Amino acid sequence: MEAPAAPHDAAETELTVTSPEQMRELGRRLAKLLRAGDLVMLNGELGAGKTTLTRGLGEGLGVRGAVTSPTFVIARVHPSLADGPALVHVDAYRLGGGLDEMEDLDLDVSLPESVVVVEWGEGKVEELTDDRLHVVIHRAVGDTADEVRHVTVTGLGRRWAAADLSVLSA
After folding, report:
1. Contact assessment for residue 75 and residue 86, using Cβ atoms and an 8 Å cutoff
2. How confident is the model over 23-34, as pLDDT tens digits?
3. Helix (H), strand (E) at residue 10
4. What phi and psi values does residue 157 have, to the nearest 5 degrees?
5. DSSP code at position 79
6. 17 touches 44 (CB < 8 A)
7. Residue 149's beta-bridge partner residues?
8. Are 137 and 149 in contact (CB under 8 A)?
9. In whole angstroms, what is the distance from residue 16 CA to residue 6 CA?
10. CA dist., res. 154 & res. 111, Å (int)
C-alpha cells in the first residue's frame, strides 16, 4: 500500500525513536526550528510520547515550569526564561467542539507571540493557521513494553515548505 502524497507546500520526515530520552531529544532538536507564531499539532495513541516530546520542546525553548500533561487544565502557558517565545501546551483530548471550544482558550491571541503545541488537535485547530507542523507518533498498541515509536513530522504551508526537517534525525 502506497502512502498518500504529501500536500503541496509540505516538508516531511520520518524517524524511529526507541526510548523516552530519545523522544525528549527529538523535542529539543525540534525546538531549534520553532519560532513565535508556530503551531505544532501532536497526534498519537495514549502513551505514545506526546507529552514527553513537548517536555523536550520546553527544554529546547528554555521555558519556565515543568512540562506535564495539561489534560485536566486543558492548557498551560510556560513563559520563556530567556527572550524566546512562551510555550502554550494544550491538551484537546476532552474538547469535542472543534474550533468553537478552542476559541475559549484564545489560542489565536497567543499564537503570534508563542509556540503553541496542541495534543489531540487534529480536526480542532487547523483553522488557526495554514502554516503548521503535524507530528504523528505511532506505537505498538496492546499490552506491550515496546518503546519503539515511529514519528512522522510534516510541515504544512509556506512557513515549512523549504524547511529541512531531516535535521531532526541528526
Report:
1. no
2. 999 999 999 999
3. strand 10-17
4. 90, 175
5. -
6. no
7. 17, 139
8. yes
9. 19
10. 19
